[in-house]
Amino acid sequence: MTVFKTFLKVLNKCKVTIIMYTIILIGFGGFNMQTSDNSTNFVASKPDIFIVNRDEENAITNNLVEYIKNNSNLIDIQNNEEAINDAVFYRDANYVIYIPKNYGKDFLEGKNPNIEIKSTGDYQSSFAEMLLQRYIKVANLYQANISTEEELILKINDTLSKETQIEITSKLDTDMLSKATFYYNFASYSILAGCVYIICLILSSFKDEKIRKRTIISSMSEKEYNRKLLLANSLLAVVIWLLYVVLSFILVGNIMYSVHGLVYIINSFIFTICAVTIAFLIGNIVNNKNAINGIVNVVALRFKLFMWCFCTNGMDTRYCIKNSSCFTNLLLYK
């Protein structure tokens, strides 16, 4: 109880700084959420594809290239392996297609020629592979029954030109769900930054020479002392978490009363537990109060970059370092 009372005294002493910092985080998050574009209209995305065509003088091959061109972005890079490997590594090309020599002739003769590919392994490359496989499957289906090249191309193009109309029947309010996603995306940064800042500020006060001497000579063990201090910090983190949860009901709206809202709340609570442990670790390492602001920004933003890379680039942080758009997306929280 003595530790907890001391914790509250230190918290009360730093209340002005803590309140100002929390208001800034909440205000910035609320402003960005209100001004963000929450449009969820579907826009087709085309992969970036590079084609190495070694069979240029053939109608069926040219038709394949034309089909890929109409459904993707054909890029122009140097036709050598080093440049191609660099383009794939840095995501300048999602998919590379190697069309072998005499592909069209071998295909018409039923030899089933092999097309080699290189891929980034992301969702864009999966879409590119789907395009290629769709053409090959349709072409193989007609090739077994049609002998002339002209008729074969007409049948392939006629089949591939057909599209299916898709109607979304879900009654879920996607705009509100997108709003909740944006809010809790920013809240994860705010909770981590707030916990690290406040807990480090309080723990640095507990490291004052007089307080440390009193703690050492007391009958309380170091283990019990740290346990009570961690419990007090956890209660503080729960208060911060509750503050953001209550604010989400005000800013986001009725979607928070649904199952989706409950999932967001539970997820943020689990994240808050992780944030407390990170903040408690840093607070026990750092002794200088003046270094806390710098540590908060480094830890919170680095963690945000780590999570963004994991979700979008499969933990390929080298691509994030190379591609400045990652850092732009990090700051915009999109």
- The N- and C-terminal alpha carbons lie at a distance of 44 Å
- The rounded Rg comes to 29 Å
Q: Which structural class matches the secondary elements?
A: mainly alpha
Biggest β-sheet: strands ordered side by side in the sheet: 2-1-3-4
Largest sheet: number of strands, sense, barrel closure: 4 strands, mixed
> Given the C-alpha coordinates, what overall shape results?
elongated
Descriptive account of the structure:
This protein has 334 residues and is mainly α. It is 68% helix and 5% strand. It is built from 14 helices and four strands. The chain has helices at residues 2-13, 15-35, 59-70, 81-89, 103-108, 123-143, 149-160, 174-206, 209-217, 222-251, 259-285, 292-313, 317-322, 325-332; strands spanning 48-53, 73-74, 95-99, 116-119. A four-stranded mixed beta sheet has the order 2-1-3-4, covered by helices on one side. Helix 3 (59-70) links the parallel strand 1 (48-53) and strand 2 (73-74). The chain is elongated and about 95 Å long.
Structural descriptors:
mainly alpha; 4 strands; 5% strand; disordered C terminus
Brief overview, please?
By secondary structure, the chain is mostly helical.
Secondary-structure blueprint:
Layout: H1 2-13, H2 15-35, E1 48-53, H3 59-70, E2 73-74, H4 81-89, E3 95-99, H5 103-108, E4 116-119, H6 123-143, H7 149-160, H8 174-206, H9 209-217, H10 222-251, H11 259-285, H12 292-313, H13 317-322, H14 325-332
